[in-house]
Amino acid sequence: MTTVVKLTDYQLRVENVLNNAIPKAEDEPCLLHKAMRYSVLGGGKRIRPLLVYATGECFNIDKKTLDAPAVAIELLHAYSLVHDDLPAMDDDDLRRGKASTHKAFDEATAILAGDALQTLAFEILASDLHNISLKNQLKLINILAKSAGSFGMVGGQVIDLSSTNKRLSESQLENMHQHKTGALISASVMMGANCSDKLTQQQKISLEQYATCIGLAFQVQDDILDIESDTETLGKQQGADIDANKATYPAILGMSAAKEKTASLYQSAYNALSCFGEEANLLRKIADFIVKRNQ
After folding, report:
1. Cross-strand bridge partners of residue 95
2. Does the model's pTM come out above 0.90?
3. Which architecture, in CATH terms, is 3-291?
């Protein structure tokens, strides 16, 4: 099976598992559950759950074992997008090619849907998990909690909001994105790795380096696409960062240097996986996808 076919299979798998994990629309409170399902299903690249499955392949972990962390990380990510789109945050009307949750429903419902998605992520990780030891289960919960909190994604969002209309240095911008975007991407990789009892220290360091590089490459490429792509392709408003006067890599470095940075991060991600063989090919393919989107 080729890596492309594997990625497609995993995308279909996580879509099915997500559908089963989120309460049905007819379950009370119906409005809340409709908003939750609207926010998660039927869109998105599913990069984070794909990283869970791809890392699990490095250790020959059963797909069923990886379902819970894959779903948990995507639910957490979806909650962050719902809240990020709110008028008090980035005030975006479009997400994944359709109306943002607060536009499709209302602001209060969107806030509560995001809250419920976040708690559902931890409920799933705290339930009985397939072939995962209690020790590793605690690690998964801890990884997700730390990546989502004040020293992770939420902290990055605060830095982002406070940096609007300000000129950031490259190191300040990198710090913001390592928290806002990179934290959940790193969590995806490390959750997949910590489903195994065979993770060595060298493998841990290598995977952390890979995750750091692709997490930052993802954001630099997003900044580039915000300028060079279009709204239909992006599934969100093209040029939104420029309109909001946000700091971006092309604005700070220039477009040519931003593209060079993406290429350098991509190569570093590949190099980080040198201690793995063919079992890491899916991780390499995801790096390809992240960097070569819309090229």
Report:
1. 98
2. yes
3. Orthogonal Bundle (1.10)
